């Protein structure tokens, strides 16, 4: 049997075996085995770039999000960090992210790796923190009763100094009412950042300086409303399923509108007739939050539904 390699001069020429049935001329590519590998010293593109936990970082999130020794450009974007939880499931290029601060890294874990223990604890912490903004609409009867003057109220003296009226609500309650209004009407948060809105709010509450809920605070409130809504819907559907003797009764609809590769709006709704023969329609419209790879975090635009017949 002929060998695959034959030596000529100082070089090694690659030839094919006659058993293969393919003839090859002596002008084929010559590989000099004595010559060093031209790629020696260069890191293959398939290897994960060097990375490590940021120095002086104490938060637990940096155990999963490491800083790259050198920034990496991918798809016309420069990334500075890499997520270790993404690596087993994705290519290292798709595991790149941006995390300038601890909060940015936590946003990525909470939105992408929800099953992670640290992400679940962080979500619970945010939900608990958002609970202080909980507000509820007062019944019309209570509001009318509060507006009526008391018979025992003392009449002010004629020369009494006029007092400035102020709303009997805390700043947290004001933030809660603003967030509740935006969520229920499906309005964007930037409506509250205009000068006209601040002047309107200052005139309503009687305070010259008003504090609008920050982007982070609004997202925490929104996440809490979103979680509560999902729980209420699940509970309602399970109860109806039992009332109908576990008969299939739901008509589910899913819609997707995409305006870019990193931002899309997902809509989900269900329609059914309950055990009282009343039509019910529950709609949940939500914008998918950015996973941190694009830098800015998007805000869910709308999360609403009617749980009342």
Automatic annotation (TrEMBL):
GO cellular component, one term: nucleus
TM region(s), chain numbering: none
Protein keywords: Metal-binding, Nucleus, Zinc, Zinc-finger
GO molecular function: zinc ion binding
Transcription regulation keyword on record: no
Keyword Protein biosynthesis carried by entry: no
Compositionally biased spans, kind Low complexity: 17-26
Major site of localization recorded for this protein: nucleus
Subcellular localization: Nucleus
Disordered as annotated region, ranges: 1-52, 116-159
Superkingdom of source: Eukaryota
Compositionally skewed regions (Basic and acidic residues) per UniProt: 131-157
PANTHER family per UniProt: ZINC FINGER BED DOMAIN-CONTAINING PROTEIN 39, ZINC FINGER BED DOMAIN-CONTAINING PROTEIN 4
Protein name: BED-type domain-containing protein
Source species: Phytophthora oleae
Lineage: Eukaryota, Sar, Stramenopiles, Oomycota, Peronosporomycetes
